[in-house]
Amino acid sequence: MKQSLLFLSIAVAIHCSAQSLLLPGDAAFDKKRLIGTKYEMAVFAITPKGNQVGVSDFTVEVIPNSTNFSVYTSLRMYATNEQWIDTSISDAITLKPVYRSSYNPNRSFALKFGKEVTGFYFDHQGKTKSYVKESVNNLFFDSYVYPYLLGALPLQSGYRADMRVYEYTPVNNGHIKNSRIEEVKSSMYKSDISGEHKVWQVSVFEEATNEQYEYYIDKETRRIWKIEILAANNQKFLLINKEIDFDLVVKTVFDKDATMKLLKEGR
């Protein structure tokens, strides 16, 4: 009897720990939620005492069309004014990766995806350039694009899934890993600018980087309000949406005389 209960417990544990595997072309993605947007986030490093130190601005532009789903980002460091530029282009229908590039002071690379992954990787520090040519048989997403696909998933409390992603590094031949959606729960995000927003708090662990992410995604609009990062070296970072679109509205000067004139003229 004890052995039967033990086997039953193991079976239940395995069942509970299993997560569905999301792949390009999966019907779970609601393409209507993959909308064009552009926003900025302020990036803070969190000190051991919990203080926030501003380190950079992070600009995101998402452009979907009938052919591609494209993500362009720029990270500008406050201390050095250096920029980190990244591009990720996926097929609009399947969300399979098409192109990926990244340029920063440490390294540059560009990859094209098909039956093979081809491209180059240039180490700026060591002044060495290597060429990439890798056969791939499995379906996967680009590791850089998955955060911008989370909002298109059927998020609800208790939702869990794995997303198979491709993350290129020159020192590792195993470039296909999982980004694991470990937990989704209902939460609230309070903005100093626009007030409270109901959000899904999505916990993701990246096998490729050994980093933990907490995404706060608006339940209605799917806007990413906040991201919390625990890096592999235990350094913590915080990204906050700067709500530039809201600022454009509230900072517009109200011209009372001009407004009254328009009202009197019936315009």
Task: Indicate the topology.
Elements: H1 2-17, E1 20-22, E2 37-46, E3 52-64, E4 68-77, E5 83-91, E6 97-103, E7 107-113, E8 116-123, E9 128-135, E10 141-142, E11 161-166, E12 176-191, E13 195-206, E14 211-218, E15 224-230, E16 236-241, H2 244-250, H3 256-264
Parallel strand pairs: 1-11, 10-11
Antiparallel strand pairs: 2-3, 2-16, 3-4, 4-5, 5-6, 6-7, 7-8, 8-9, 11-12, 12-13, 13-14, 14-15, 15-16
Keywords: Signal
Protein name: DUF3108 domain-containing protein
Signal peptide: 1-18
Give the amount of beta strand, in percent. Answer: over 45%
Question: Whole-number radius of gyration?
Answer: 22 Å
* Secondary-structure-derived class: mainly beta
As for the CATH topology, it is outer membrane lipoprotein receptor (LolB), chain A
InterPro entries: DUF3108
Keywords: Signal
Pfam family, one: DUF3108
Protein name: DUF3108 domain-containing protein
Question: Any overview of this molecule?
Answer:
It is a single chain. By secondary structure, the protein is mostly beta strands. It has a single domain, classed as outer membrane lipoprotein receptor (LolB), chain A (Clam), CATH 2.50.20. The chain contains three helices and 16 strands. It has helices spanning 2-17, 244-250, 256-264; strands at 20-22, 37-46, 52-64, 68-77, 83-91, 97-103, 107-113, 116-123, 128-135, 141-142, 161-166, 176-191, 195-206, 211-218, 224-230, 236-241. It has a 16-stranded mixed beta sheet that branches. The radius of gyration is 22 Å and the shape is globular. It starts with a helix and ends with a helix. The relative contact order is 0.13.
